[in-house]
Amino acid sequence: MFNQLGGVSANPNKDLEVTSPPEDAVSSLEFSPPSVQQTFLIAGSWDCRVRCWEVEASGKTVPKAAQGMDGPILDVAWHDDGTKVFMASTDKSVKCWDLAANQTMQVAAHDAPVKACHWIKAPNYTCLMTASWDKTLKFWDTRSAVPSMTMNLSERCYCADVDYPLAAVGTADRAICLYTLEGKPAEFKRVESPLKHQHRCIAIFRDKKSKQPTGFALGSVEGRVAIQYVSPANPKDNFTFKCHRPPAAAGGYQDIYAVNDIAFHPAHGTLATVGSDGSFSFWDKDARTKLKSPEPLDQPLTKCAFNHTGQIFAYAVGYDWSKGYEHYNPAKKTYIYLRACYEDLKPRPS
Amino acid sequence: MGRKKKKASKPWCWYCNREFDDEKILIQHQKAKHFKCHICHKKLYTGPGLSIHCMQVHKEAIDKVPNSLPNRSNIEIEIYGMEGIPPEDIKEHEKQKTGGGKGSDSDDDEPAAKKKATPALLGAGPSTVTPGILPTPMGPVPPGMYPGHMSMNPMMPPFMQPRMMMPGMRPLFPAASVPTSTPSKPTFPAYSNATISAPPTTSTSSGSSEAKENGEVKPPAANSCPLVTATGAGSKIVHPPEDVSLEEIRARTAKYRPKPKPDAPVAQPAPAPAMITPSTSQAEVAAHMSAAVAAAARQQHAAAAAAMRRPMMGAPMMGVMPQTMRVGVPVSMPPVMGMLPVMHQFNLMRPIQPGMLLPGGMMPMGAMFPGGMPGLPMMQPRFR
C-alpha cells in the first residue's frame, strides 16, 4: 500500500496511497455523493483521463474504470445520483460518463477550454453548469446540444463552486460573481475581490446552524485565503489569512506559494487548503486558527477533497506548473493519498 | 466624470504604479516599501541611497529596488516622490489614466490609519521638506548646490545628471548616514508581505515595456494585472511572471494540446461553420431557460442533437458534435482568429512568439503545419 519507491519524503505523513494513480498531475478530485452506498473517488488528470476507484472501509483502493477525452481534464463533477460523472476538458467540451455502462457522451461545449463543471440539483430542475475560458457560464440540461442558459462572465473563469442554491465563479480579472440557483439560475451579485492577486480556487461554505450556503473561501496565487460572507452581519466577519508560505531560509527570500485548492469539511465546517508548496493545512475559520499542518511533501499538492461523511481527506500530489515548464520533471510521479481526517478537523472548542 | 482630471494628477509611485492622494504619503510609501534596508530596516530616501547604504554598511550589493515592478526595479534612478520620474513614464502614466479603463481606487490598498499617520518630520510635500532635518552627513544642502554635488558623485551615471537639475530637495547621501542601531519594525506589519499589487489599471500601462523584458507579448487589456508581482519585503510569489492561470500556461504546452482528430475534416457536418459565427453565439448568449431554442440556434440544434444521440466513443464518432471540430486546433494558433470571431477576446489567442508558447525549444508549429507558416490555408479544410 505505501509507496515503496519514493521513501519518506514522498509520503511523510504515512497516508494511504491510492493504487494506479494518474500518469500526470491531478486537476480535479471528487468523492461520490451520499446517494451511493460505497465510496468512489474520481480524479481528472492532465494525462487526459478520468479515473474511478472504489475506496473500501479499510482504506484500500480498487481501480474501477477510466475514460479519456481529447485534451487534459480540467474538472470533474458527480451527478447527484452517483451513477454519472461529468468531465470538463481543454478540448472545449464536457462529457457525461455513465459509470454503469462505461459509456461517455458529450453534453456541453464551449469556445475555449472548460475550466469548471458542476451538477446542480434543485427541487424543480437539474442541470450542468459549465464555466470556461471563453468568458461564459452555461447551463445545460444534458439532453440538448444547446445550453438552456448562457451568461457572460467579465473574464475567463478561473474557479467555480456550487452548493445549491448558491453558485460562485471567480474570474481572471479578480472578480467574483455569485448566482442564485433557486427557481432558475440568475446572477445574484458581483463581489469585489478581497484579494489582490489572481484567483485560484473557491469553495462555498455553509452556515453552522442553518446548514445553508452563507459564504465562500477564495484562494489566490499569493498564499492567501479570503473568508467572505455573502451578506456579512458584520463587515469584520470577512477576513483573509496567509497560508502556504514556508518560513524563509535565513537571510533569503520568503517564497509565497499558490493556494491550489480549498475544501470544507462536510460535518465540521472547518476547511483544508492545499498549496504549491507541497503542504496541506486544516483551519477553523470561526476560531480563526490553524488546526493542523501535517508534514509537507516534496511536490505541490494540486487538489483535495473530503468524502461526504467527512471521514476521508484525499489530496493529490504532482507538479502544478507553478515554477514553469522548466521545473517539470516527468520522473516525479503523481500520487493521491487518503487520510483519516475526522478528528483532525474538529473545530476548536470555543 | 469630473473626477477623472483629478485622478490623472494624483501622485503615483514609479516603482509599483500605485497612486496616492498626497505626495507626502507617496514618499512615506516609497521609504517604507522601496527604500527600506532589508537588513537593518532603516528607511533610506532614494534607490541609490539604499544601494549605497547596503554597500557601505552591510557590504551587500542591491541590484533591484525592493517590491518594484520588474521593469521599474532600476536602483540607479534617483526618484523621490514624483521627482526624478523619467518624463516618458509620466506621459505614459497620464495617458493610461486619461485614456479610459476602469479607475481602480488604489487608495483602498492602504489602511485608513496609515493615511492619517503623517509624521511631523515631513511637511506638506517634498518641496517643503527642510533638508536640514534629513540625515545627510553634510547637513542642510541648499537646492542650488545640487548640480555641483551631483557631478562630483562618482556613483551617479552621467545620464542621471539632467534630471538632477530639478530643484528637488532630496537628501544627497542618505546612505552614508549612520544606521540606526535598533532595527525598526516594519511600518505596516500586515502589509509587509506581498499584499500590495500594482493597481490593475495603472499596471497595464507597463505592459508594453514588460513584454519586452519577458520576451512575451500580451494582448492589451486581456489581463487587468498582467504580471504576478509585488511581493513584500523579502518575499516572492512562486508563479510564472505572467498573470495567467497555471492551467492556461500549462495548456499551451505542446504536450497538452488537445489531440487533433485525424478524421475531423471528413466527419465535419456540413452546417458546422454556422456554429461559430458571431451571430450564433449572440443568439446563444441571449437564450434563456424558456427561450432555449432561439430561432438562430434551432437549425444547429437539430443537427447537433442528432449528432449527440450517437454514442461518443470510438473513432467514427469523433467530432460529431459540431463544436468539437475545433478541438484539433491548438489553442494558441493566431490564424484561427479569422475564422473564429467569437474567440477573438480569448487570451490564449495571442500572437505567437518564437519560444514563448513552447518552452523547451520545440517547434511543433512546423511539424503540425508543414507549410512552415502556420497560416490559414493549412487550417481551412478543417472548417469546410
Write a short abstract of this structure:
The complex is a heterodimer of chains A (350) and B (384). With 350 residues, chain A is mostly beta strands.
Mean pLDDT across every amino acid position of chain A? 93
Oligomer: heterodimer
What is the terminal-to-terminal distance of chain A?
38 Å
Q: Report the end-to-end length of chain B measured between terminal Cα atoms.
A: 49 Å
The main sheet of chain B comes to:
none
Contiguous helical run count of chain A: 1
Stretches with pLDDT under 50, minimum 5 residues of chain B: 100-225, 263-384
Radius of gyration of chain A: 19 Å
Query: How much β-strand is present in the residues of chain A?
Result: over 45%
Explain what the structure shows.
- The complex is a heterodimer of chains A (350) and B (384).
- Chain A is mainly beta and 350 residues long.
- In chain A, 1% of the residues lie in helices and 49% in strands.
- In chain A, strands 1-29-28-27 form a 4-stranded antiparallel beta sheet, with no helix packed on it. A 4-stranded antiparallel beta sheet of chain A has the order 2-3-4-5, with no helix packed on it.
- The model of chain A is unreliable at 1-8 (pLDDT under 50).
- With 384 residues, chain B is mainly alpha-helical.
- Helix content of chain B is 31%, strand content 1%.
- Chain B has helices at residues 3-8, 23-34, 47-58, 87-98, 112-116, 146-152, 161-164, 200-205, 207-214, 246-252, 264-267, 278-286, 295-309, 336-339, 364-368, 376-379; one strand at residues 235-237.
- Strand 22 of chain A pairs parallel with strand 1 of chain B.
What secondary-structure arrangement, pairings included, does this model have?
The complex is a heterodimer of chains A (350) and B (384).
Chain A: H1 7-10, E1 16-17, E2 26-31, E3 39-45, E4 49-55, E5 61-68, E6 73-78, E7 84-89, E8 93-98, E9 103-109, E10 114-121, E11 126-132, E12 136-140, E13 149-152, E14 157-163, E15 166-171, E16 175-180, E17 186-192, E18 199-206, E19 213-220, E20 224-229, E21 239-242, E22 254-256, E23 259-264, E24 271-275, E25 280-284, E26 289-292, E27 301-306, E28 312-317, E29 335-340
Chain B: H1 3-8, H2 23-34, H3 47-58, H4 87-98, H5 112-116, H6 146-152, H7 161-164, H8 200-205, H9 207-214, E1 235-237, H10 246-252, H11 264-267, H12 278-286, H13 295-309, H14 336-339, H15 364-368, H16 376-379
